[in-house]
Amino acid sequence: MPETILIVEDEPSLQETLAYSLAKQGYNVESVGDGRIALETARRLRPDLILLDIMLPGLDGVEVCKTLRRENFQFPIIMLTARDDEIDRVVGLEVGADDYLTKPFSMRELIARVKAQLRRTQVIREELEKIKTDLPATKQDILTLENMTINITRREVILNNAPLALKPQEYDLLLFFAEHKGQMLSREFVLERVWGWDSVGDSRTVDVHVRWLRQKIESDPANPTRIVTVRGGGYRFEG
Predict the structure, then answer these.
(1) At the fourth CATH level, which superfamily is domain 4-131?
(2) pLDDT averaged over consecutive 10-residue blocks of the chain (239 residues)?
(3) Delimiting residues of CATH 1.10.10.10 domain(s) in the chain
(4) What is the Cα–Cα distance from 236 to 226, expressed in whole angstroms?
(5) According to the model, what pLDDT value does residue 167 have?
(6) Inter-residue contact 71 to 48 (CB < 8 Å)
(7) Which of 15, 34, 48, 220 could pair covalently with 58 via S-S, beta carbons 3.0-4.6 A apart?
(8) What are the respective helix, strand and coil percentages of the chain, to the nearest 5?
């Protein structure tokens, strides 16, 4: 079934061009030109992706994005703006946008961004479904992994009978790996589940934290046996 894209753009000529180009790619397209109508349409339509202009009548794009994220809608949002301002970009990402394009932009670039976001969402959805079938029926409070123990209630890790000092994000990443032991996890999926949809980071964030974790839990970080890299895929935690 074709994905549905909601275009929120108040400039008629650009709205029409976007709709034509995306429909030509095989997407279902719906277009609106007002922020308040955009909210109502997104709630009803539940699109697979939104192209959201920042400068809109009724309600600006930042407020639209913020409201949708507050209501826990997690479809990708690509923000469009005529203002090439780093502050605008940061604000847009902080309220939950997944990507950002400054006008004028090429239609080829926009379509590439759209496809990338939809592909990322599909990967996450597929991995979530796989994990649901693999999860144990009950969740343990303590995970024991050879010479390492993770106490979930206390947020404490013991390695070789001694407390292991971890930063909060390192702990969250280690716990996520441990709860999905033996499963290949893509970088995008780890970023989504550990850092969240509103994260400003990218897959390199995952690589950096994996490197830090390896320094702390691997006997030989240069040749890891616990957090294994899956070439072209991501990581697999072996315990």
Answers:
(1) Response regulator (3.40.50.2300)
(2) 93 95 96 96 95 93 90 88 65 77 91 90 76 56 89 90 89 92 88 69 80 93 93 87
(3) 135-237
(4) 8
(5) 86
(6) no
(7) 34
(8) 45, 20, 35
> Is the domain 135-237 a CATH 1.10.10.10 member?
yes
As a whole number of angstroms, the distance between CA 104 and CA 80 comes to 9
Do 6 and 35 meet the contact criterion of CB atoms below 8 Å apart? Answer: no
Report whether 143 contacts 179 (CB < 8 A).
yes
- State both tokens at 185: 């996890």
Residues for the chain: how many in total? Answer: 239
Residues of the chain with CATH 3.40.50.2300: 4-131
Helical pair 203-217 and 168-179, crossing angle rounded to 10 deg: 90
pLDDT score, position 137: 45
Name the token pair of 151. Answer: 């106490």
Q: How far apart are CA 217 and CA 145, in angstroms?
A: 11
pLDDT at 91 (0 to 100): 66
Q: What is the pLDDT of residue 223?
A: 93
